[in-house]
TrEMBL record, chain A:
Keywords on record: FAD, Flavoprotein
Name of the molecule in the record: FAD-dependent oxidoreductase
InterPro entries per UniProt: BFD-like_2Fe2S-bd_dom, BFD-like_2Fe2S-bd_dom_sf, FAD-bd_OxRdtase, FAD/NAD-bd_sf, FAD/NAD-binding_dom, FAD/NAD-linked_Rdtase_dimer_sf, Rubredoxin_C
Cofactor: FAD
Organism annotation: Saccharothrix hoggarensis
From TrEMBL, chain B:
PANTHER family noted in UniProt: NADH-QUINONE OXIDOREDUCTASE SUBUNIT G, RESPIRATORY NITRATE REDUCTASE
Species classification: Bacteria, Bacillati, Actinomycetota, Actinomycetes, Pseudonocardiales
Stated name of the protein: Molybdopterin oxidoreductase family protein
Record key words, sorted: Iron, Iron-sulfur, Metal-binding
InterPro entries: Asp_de-COase-like_dom_sf, MoPterin_dinucl-bd_dom, Mopterin_OxRdtase, Prok_molybdopt-oxidoreductase
Residues covered by the Molybdopterin oxidoreductase domain: 36-455
Residue ranges constituting the Molybdopterin dinucleotide-binding domain according to the UniProt record: 544-651
Pfam family, one: Molydop_binding
Amino acid sequence: MRNVVVVGYGMAGARLADEIRRRDPKADRVAVTVLGDEAHPAYNRVLLSSVVAGSLTPEAVRLHDEDWAARHHVDLRLGGSVTKIDRTRRVVHVDDTEVPYDALVLATGARSWVPPTDGLLDGNGDLAPGVVAFRSLDDCARIVDKASPGTPVAVLGGGLLGLEAARGLAGRGCLVTVVHPVGHLMERQLDAGAGRVLAATLNGLGIEFRLGVLATRYVPGDGLELNDGTHVPADLVVVSAGVRAETGLAEQAGIDVDRGILVDDALRTSDPRVHAIGDCAQHVGTVSGLVQPAWEQAAVLADRLTGAAPAARYAGTTVVTRLKARDVDLAALGDVHVGVDSADDEVLCFQDPARGRYAKLVLRDDKVTGAIVLGAPDAAAAITQLFDRGLPAPTDRLALLLGRALPAENEASPADLPASAVVCRCNTVSKGQLVSAWRAGATTISAIAEVTRASTGCGGCKDAVCGIVDWLAASQPQSA
Amino acid sequence: MTIENGKVSPREFPTNRGGLCQKGWTSAELLTSPARLTTPLVRRDGELRPATWDEALDVVAAKLRALREEHGPDAVGVFGGGGLTNEKSYALGKFARVALGTSQIDYNGRFCMSSAAAAGMKAFGLDRGMPFPVTDLDDAGAVLLVGGNPAETMPPFVQHLKNAELIVIDPRRTATAELATLHLQPAPGTDLALALGLLHSAVADGHLDQRYLDDRTTGFEDAWRIAASWWPERVERVTGVPVADQRAAVRILAEARNAYILTGRGTEQHASGADTVSAWINLALALGLPGTKGSGYGCLTGQGNGQGGREHGQKADQLPGYRKITDPDARDHVMGVWGVDDLPGPGRSAYELLDALGQPGGPKALLVFGSNVIVSAPRSQHVADRLKALDLLVVADLVLSETAAVADVVLPVTQWAEEGGTMTNLEGRVLLRQVAVEPPEGVRSDLDVLQGLATRLGQPAERFPTEPEVVFEELRRASKGGLADYSGVTYERLRQGEALHWPVVGESTPRNFLDRFAHPDGRARFVPVEHRGPAELPDAEYPLQATTGRVLQHYQSGAQTRLVRELNQAEPEAYVEVHPDTATRAGVRDGQLASVVSRRGRTVARVRCVPSMRVDLVFLPFHFAGEGRANLLTNPVLDPTSRMPEFKVCAVRLESV
């Protein structure tokens, strides 16, 4: 039996254990030990913005229940801290005990990065009173605790997670100001035009923005001072300025590390017995920080570790960024930093800032290579499908921007219908047949129903049949 | 409806409210169709030739006896149909197990409602398609219809949806979707993810009926653990359904005073069909709908007697009264009624039965009643090949269906207006069909056929009565105490026009579950289910997905409706709906013939360009024969619980002919 030890019981570590047990449900092939430093069961980090928004309870975002480990033959050890990896003896040190491994998986995740604003940290290097990172379930509890209606809150960081937190807090009635050092929001995923429309949309939901400025000083009980000399009042400062991969253990053990723990397509580190997945891993230059790559990596690694597919490879993940914020529909994907006059690409752009809509589409060889879609939910969904499935885009580009085929014309008047148009579906009766029946003397609704059976099924076409009869009557030359 | 002088006229009835579609209006034509079989046919020197009834039945019985002696009773298989009356379904199951002694019986309802049946049993402890009268829908504030297209498949039913806010879930913009307030268009095979997403939204948007959960259900926690990981944005990416539409759908259902969730074949005919229906039922439970007066979950019946056909013993795993064949008490009861001291156990499911024909250990003879498997079974060329490998194929039908055409013996039987018997409709109501016209000379009822064969196999004639009412009296006793208890139903009560919904011990049960669900603890069960996706995904060789369905003018395999002139003029041949861009890329044009090719076969169909189609999807109706059979393409991978094949999605490519 192979002994797999997973360091980290977050979204990546928990998923790996699940994926291994899906392939080896009775623990016939692989023994799994999971080491978690938090005291409670794993939870779904993606849903923390819903907890902040108050739509989900902390209990509702747990990934596993209390007896998950027992039911799935997993040796789960919570609350201990892994101090060292001994690669020669193949053991990890957890506080005072040693846990031997045949394969070790580092799923240590990432920690919040705190910008160098004076006063955010106290003398011990911990966050100062009134300052909370937005990373863990405990963080959420601290945020929610302070976020009563009317509370002024500053969010440091106008990236994806910062905006999700800001939206949730605004929904709770807090007075939210987002401070972002770049000139437009979500600059990694959006161009300036989209960033402006997004800011306007969020502003309409009660969120203020200070863009292109840095917070220089935090004064507890007062707020933030900015480098343009202005001031943001805040009883609570939520830090969401990015994360850093948790690489300390790996580094200490002499494993190659860059911004994350370096892994190949087999998710192996520089020591082939040690693997890394999720936010702590760096694969072909990418440290993702997103759940989908972590889950895909967990599936590949489970294939390999259980022998279900020993040659499985992780080939990278196509990322689609989707803001999870009520009443805001934003999707961004692929490479969008291309101008409309690009020679190599076909670029479409639609801007309707007054209605909060912005769409930019980059196509190459008829396939979507990049897109930003804001305020157009149907289009966001449809374009994501084309992108994910590698499908050629419809030639009707306008329909594409609308997200679906153009709706049928509004009900045409009877005169405009072609004779072949089917009026009664239930009985396949065309306008032509109705006209013939009318001319043959069936000039009332009941007579025409008797002759053609139109309207005798579901009855849904009754109005249309009446319309045609009225139209025929009206177009009849008046007899003297 | 009623029939007089060969002319059909509609009758006021709660289900159709006096409406008929083209199939109903023209149904009399089949009674006198020149294509009607009026004499038994026996294959001699490679050709089907007229024979007397005695000759035909003697040939069949002799062969059956010989096969049974040589290979044992399971060498003979029986394949029934959801169009048969309750009496015939019951008699067929009894014939198989008593006269033939075989376990090898199943029916085409396995291809129809088995996923919904399995999920209904798990959740409620009882499966009645609609556990409420269909007229209850009239007062619904909202109806969510998943994978059903009644505007095309049973138009008069649409009248019941007129007052509701209608939400339709279908990958295609169908005639029914056109009627909807909200149309969700998921990618084929992703309904389960969508259902999980709607459950997620129900919780996150505060629509959970906590009191109902506490009082009437168990297992929500485990179902939620899975749905928690299907947040709306993730669901959008998998299904293509916008987040805003997911939320709106749940809100419409939750805010309506009364609401229903109804499923149809579109969401059920998948290798994950049973779990998919469980996911829809979970959503209904989370919103507090089932067992609440004026609200609920229901499944739309697919065949004339789809409901009754699955209750009385033509299913591989069941005995009359919706009893389990593996339950010792159920076996004892039924053996007592039948006067026998042994019964075979469960047999193969429909596709597995067809797949085993002529194979080592599989049946060497097959008797088919009321089904046209060459057209309607998945991977139909393979099924045709299996039929060829049989020592004996017997088909009882009213016309020479494609399956009958390759049989060794064909037995001409009566049809609707020519025979009495009961059917159980989509709302679990037992209906009496009365003889309206005399059958043509030479035609016998299926009950006659079964008695004729049974006596030749050494059974006493009185064990297989031919009078429907006599059969029904026995069915009443056999079903007594079962889930589908008909013991209180009599022809007399039905003749007097009583509305009897099963179970009927004394009183009718128009609405099940109002006080308790059918599980021992009286509670409905959430079933934790996870999304799996289609068994076959598109790739470079087969870049498109195909889905199948019905058109208004035809019924099932089309063996009957293709013979009706008016219906056939309206839809004369196989066609394939595609997005205009997809047609252009494949080099085919609107109105031309094209090939649709899957790993299992090639179908030829006329191209119809439909701009509302997804660019990666084609649609084919399944009513046509020969090279137009949509089921030449379909994937026979089966649902692990219901044994339903994956009719509704497979990978294909489009080619010019």
